[in-house]
Amino acid sequence: MASTNTLSKHSLSGVDITLADLLSLRYVARQLKIKHAPRVSTKLIGETHSTFKGRGLEFDEVRIYQPGDDIRTMDWRVTAKTGIAHTKLYHEERERPVFIVTDFSQSMLFGTRVAYKAVKAAELAALIAWTSILSHDRVGGIVFSDERIVELPPRGRKHGVLRFLRTLVDIYNKESKTLDKYSLPLSLKRLSHLSRPGSLIFIISDFYQHDASLERSLAQLRKHNEVFALQITDPLELEPPTANRYAISDGNKLGELDTRDKHFRDSYQQYFSEKHEKITKFLQQQNIPLWKFVTNEDMLTKLNLYLRKF
């Protein structure tokens, strides 16, 4: 495992996302460890080294039937045409589609420690994209803000990851008027049409847009794909600050957060606890792994630990 110092020096700044920053993360991705499936070699599949579990089979070639071949793979059309028994050969699909959903909605443009949640989301998205390409998979996904959404069909090699990274930078840096036109539930609904069965899906969000529509989309995606939920929170969302008066801003207006009142602190704590408990319970019911990140943590090292387990 890469050392914390090696990983941390490539972390993004707190409020900005640049293409140069995301490109530099490819060096870190080479050090991330992914649990590999065992090597497989059979008459049907052929020898290949799988990175992610659950790959499909794709057609390779047709050859003359040999004793011991599985009769279920007989190519009856070629057999009838030539008068000689032929069988189909398959190999394990090498380039699995990986979809990365990245949430840049208004609630993600928040941060009190180290970085905005959206900046950390971009960091995680870039690392997963680089790791996928290095594992010979194809990268695509959906990147959205409140007023814009971009769908990216999966592509292989560097073409796929560079297009994805440019989209992250473009959408994050585009000024938002907070039109609330797009949302996580809508993005996942569109992803269900963009993805195909057997895909690997990473959803990076705070999951604060949790509603019945989100649950339906997650459940539908989980039926035919391998889905992982990466939740990003700020320390202030986990526990209110000590009793005092704090200046806050949304980038346009100034306000004040007064935590001196115990009733307010209790209500504050309950509000966020209920949000987190609700999404955690639903994901557990759907057997969707939940990977939790906090903005003041070493996210790169933590991502490495999660990747090694799945």
Describe the structure.
39% of the residues lie in helices and 21% in strands. The strands form three sheets. Strands 5-4-3-6-7-10 form a six-stranded mixed beta sheet, sandwiched between helices. Strands 1-2 form a two-stranded antiparallel ribbon. It has a two-stranded antiparallel ribbon with strand order 8-9. The two termini are 16 Å apart. The chain is elongated and about 85 Å long. The protein contains ten helices and ten strands.
- Distance linking N and C termini: 16 Å
Please report the first level of CATH classification, the CATH class of the largest domain: Alpha Beta
Report low-confidence residues grouped into runs of 5 or more: 1-8, 36-56
Q: Mean pLDDT score, rounded?
A: 82
Structural class: alpha/beta
Number of strands: 10
| CATH homologous superfamily title of the largest domain | von Willebrand factor, type A domain
Q: What CATH architecture of the largest domain would you give?
A: 3-Layer(aba) Sandwich
* Residues in helices, as a percent range: 25-40%
Form type? elongated
Strand content: 15-25%
CATH topology of the largest domain: Rossmann fold
Question: Strands across the major sheet, in which order?
Answer: 5-4-3-6-7-10
Radius of gyration: 23 Å
What is the H-and-E element order? HHEHEEHEEHHEHEHEEHEH
Count of distinct structural domains: 2
User: Sheet with the most strands?
Assistant: 6 strands, mixed
